[in-house]
Specification:
alpha+beta; rod-shaped
């Protein structure tokens, strides 16, 4: 297994551990900040789902500002409340739920009147759970499923005179860190007692079906009520306030209460007066009366249209917290490019769409936990990928710069476009220029090695500049000489012309360079150049370390022309073939002498050779320095 696969495997394992740790930490209550994020995301999903028409099962009779203005005080006098209940009872509702805490005594006549009225109909009264702190506490441990219930210090129950004539349910709701109620506990407990919630008591009475408490859900008759792990009912809002049918209690006093709004329905009496009662922020409304929140929960229970966030959903959340980040990291590792980022982005958008689709169809998949499990490892891995990519880019750039010292720029570009360039030999026409220092071997025996190295370095720099300026390729420095090839990466019509210009430029630049050397060195060295044009075979040579070169008779002739130049008191020998291919018309600063029909060593037949001389500089003839290197 190579190192990259090991790195990817380690990244995937760490990602899985991170996702599992985030999910476990949030489930155990250690990452409470995620609750606020989840509440915000839930509000956004609710708004994206839009306003929904609630099942027409519940009517809210609101004790609103109109009623308080009429009576002149709040809380409403018990006699007035008795009149409201009595009127509603006469219209035969399924059940009357009074979302008011009747825990304090008031006028004796009013209390007695209300007590008598409560005995005339199916009534559920609200009670409250008192907790030791501002937040509800949950005991952990034990195998009893009720151990997960919110544990209160005590229950604040209605006065016995009222409770004796009605059923009682706990009206508390559970709010997230944003203040919006996201769920309503269905069961509450103290150390020695368990009580049903107000909405559950009302729904059970309205449906007239027995309630069964199963280990992870509730049963109303033969219908399962999916709840969260702590027996809380997740709620989603149908819309802004008054989306659930609402009438003012003032209609009772005016005699205008519509019988159709009451008969055979669940009626919830509660406060909606400004400055009194409970108000909560919801996705649709900044101030929704608590009575409407409770009525929403009652509607969910009776209609069975509540959102599901049960054990199976939590298992799906756990798997998503582990698998989604692993998939994203795997995609980034699969393609360290825009394709990998695009694939990861598509997966994230698909997950977001699936999450929203599930929410709109009644399944509450966690969003905050999954994002917290996915975003950090993906960001870290992407950052590491970018850092590694930057390091790799720097490495490749350094490698490219290093390669540039050995290959011509045109060849580098060609190899970058076509890595198989010259993998098979290519036969074509090309121009070859050879240059060599004369007297260098003897000189190397007399001067310091460092000085000799500096001398060669300067000589090679002159050759490299002339080759690059004319578009040639130095195939190799041969100690005190070099071979320059014109015709790669592809043959061009002006290869011969550029080779001729390069040979003349080399003649002039090397001549000036030698003249600038100390006399003890300049008097010992000379140079010779040969140039020819014709067919070659271009190929790669070598196995693990390859280099590009040319072979064939043209290369041999160009090399031997240096000897012909020396033999004829010249420094630059040009083949007649090169001059014809270059369409050379002369140089005002130089003269050509020839042609000379001559043989070259190692080759049968003769060749026409011309000798070029620079008229701008007058130095001793090459024959004076005719020392074979």
């Amino acid at each position: 297994m190579n190192s990259r696969r090991v790195q990817i495997l380690v990244a995937l394992v760490l990602t899985a551990l991170w996702g599992g740790g985030i999910y476990a930490g949030h489930t155990n209550g250690h990452l409470r900040f995620l609750d606020r994020l989840e509440a915000t995301l839930t509000d956004l999903r609710t708004l994206a789902r839009g306003v929904q028409r609630p099942p027409d099962l519940v009517t809210i009779v609101a004790i609103d500002n109109t009623v308080v203005k009429r009576g002149g005080s709040y809380p409403l006098p018990r006699a007035d409340l008795a009149r409201i209940v009595d009127t509603i009872v006469q219209f035969k509702p399924k059940v009357i739920a009074i979302d008011l805490l009747l825990v304090d005594r008031s006028a004796a006549i009013g209390d007695a009147t209300l007590a008598q009225t409560l005995a005339t109909g199916p009534i559920v009264l609200a009670a409250a759970a008192i907790f030791p702190t501002a937040s509800e506490t949950v005991a952990t441990g034990g195998e009893d499923p009720l151990a997960a219930l919110p544990q209160a210090e005590r229950f604040l129950l209605p006065l016995p005179a009222f409770a004796d004539h009605a059923e009682v349910g706990i009206v508390n709701v559970a709010t997230g860190q944003s203040g919006s109620p996201l769920s309503v506990p269905m069961l509450f407990r103290t150390r020695d007692k368990v009580e049903l919630s107000f909405p559950l008591r009302v729904a059970s009475r309205a449906l007239d079906k027995p309630l069964t408490i199963a280990p992870d859900h509730l049963m109303l008759g033969d219908r399962a009520v999916p709840t969260d792990t702590d027996f809380a009912l997740p709620i989603t809002y149908y819309g802004p306030r008054r989306t659930i049918r609402t009438v003012s209690a003032q209609s009772v006093f005016d005699g205008t209460l519509d019988r159709a709004a009451i008969e055979n329905r669940i009626v919830v009496i509660g406060a909606a007066v400004a400055g009194g009662g409970d108000f909560y922020p919801t996705p649709f409304d900044s101030l929704m009366p608590g009575v409407e929140v409770v009525s929403t929960a009652i509607t969910h229970l009776v209609a069975g249209d509540g959102i599901v966030r049960d054990r199976k959903v939590h298992i799906a959340d756990a798997l998503a917290a582990i698998l989604l980040p692993m998939l994203l990291v795997g995609l980034l590792a699969w393609r360290r490019s825009a394709l990998g980022l695009l694939a990861a982005a598509v997966v994230m958008m698909a997950w977001a769409a699936l999450n929203l689709l599930a929410f709109t169809h009644g399944i509450w998949l966690n969003a905050a936990t999954i994002l917290s499990a996915a975003v950090p490892p993906v960001a870290v891995f992407a950052g590491v990928q970018l850092w590694a990519g930057g390091r790799r880019t720097q490495y490749l750039a350094a490698k490219s710069r290093s390669l540039a010292q050995f290959q011509a720029p045109a060849v580098q570009e060609w190899l970058a476009r076509d890595p198989d360039f010259l993998a098979k030999p290519v036969r074509q026409n090309a121009a070859i220029v050879f240059i060599d220092l004369s007297g260098f071997t003897a000189l190397s025996e007399r001067i310091d090695p460092d000085a000799l190295r500096d001398l060669l370095k300067a000589f090679h720099a002159l050759i490299d500049k002339a080759a690059v300026d004319c578009g040639g390729m130095v195939t190799g420095f041969l100690g005190d000489g070099a071979m320059i090839l014109f015709g790669l990466p592809s043959a061009m019509p002006d290869d011969a012309a550029r080779a001729l210009k390069c040979a003349i430029d080399l003649h002039r630049s090397v001549e000036r360079w030698i003249a600038s050397l100390p006399p003890e060195i300049a008097d010992q060295v000379g140079f010779k150049i040969g140039a020819h044009f014709g067919p070659i075979v271009a190929s790669r040579l070598g196995e693990s370390h390859q280099h590009i070169t040319a072979t064939g008779d043209t290369v041999n002739v160009a090399s031997r022309l240096m000897e012909v130049a020396v033999q004829n008191d010249a420094r630059l020998a040009l083949s007649d073939t090169l001059l014809d291919a270059a369409d050379f018309l002369g140089d005002p600063d130089g003269t050509l002498r020839g042609p000379l029909r001559t043989q070259v060593r190692g080759r049968s037949g003769t060749i026409a050779v011309w000798f070029w001389r620079d008229e701008r500089q007058s130095r001793r003839p090459a024959a004076e320095a005719d020392v074979t290197s």
